[in-house]
Amino acid sequence: MSDEQSALAARAAAGSGLSAGLLGLLRRHPRDGWQRAAGLAGSGEVWLANHRHFRDLTGRISGGVAALRDGRSAPDHFDGLFRHDLGSLLAGLDGHHRIEDHHYFPIFRQAVPTLAPGFEILDADHTALHAAIHDLAFAGQGLLRALGAQAQAGDDRLADAAARAAEDAAAVLARFGLLLGRHLDDEEDLVIPLILERARADPDFG
Ligand SMILES: [Fe+2]
Ligand SMILES: [Fe+2]
Fold it and tell me: How many Cα neighbours within 13 Å face the side chain of 31?
């Protein structure tokens, strides 16, 4: 496991967010006031909506794999939606991280230099998540291959190899969901208060 993965996994396991020293703006702009804040309109809203979309997709994929594994859904109904959702999640996250790394984080670092260590953590999270994305794609392909082989054999129940692949995919998804969830929460805690704070002085900020 890389240093970046170990660091994100440790934060996820502890359920702890960023250190208090990085959360001064969050104390001024707590979560329960974000939706009512005028400065959220625009990039803050889009940011939260994108994160919600990634959380929802991860939850839907996990639910689909669990239903397949537990025999609550038939293998022949699984392939299309799983392919679509997994592809959408992995490509969407990749594009989202690129925009953050190359566009938003440099602007935010420059706007509030004292928060630079926080953006270094988020940057390292992206590296960790890319490895997790790779693991998830690999597990997803394994599951689709096992289901494809089973379909060719004309078996409409979940055969042993496919059941094992579904179990593996469920475990990889559970880990992925924990890492992604921790990253999204921590990023929001750093970014949204920063956007709200700066929007007071410059409504076009971000
Ligand atoms: Fe991110
Ligand atoms: Fe993000």
Answer: 8
CA of 104 to the centre of ligand 1 (A): 10
Distance 47 CA to ligand 1 centre (A): 10
Q: How many domains does the chain have?
A: 1
**38 CA → ligand 1 middle, Å:** 23
- Domain hosting 62: range is 3-10+39-201
**Residue 197 corresponds to which amino acid?**
E
Ligand sitting nearest the alpha carbon of 122: 1
Q: pTM for the whole thing?
A: 0.94
For the stretch 91-124, pLDDT in tens is 999 999 999 999 999 999 999 999 999 999 999 9
Report pLDDT digits (tens) over 136-157. Answer: 999 999 999 999 988 888 776 7
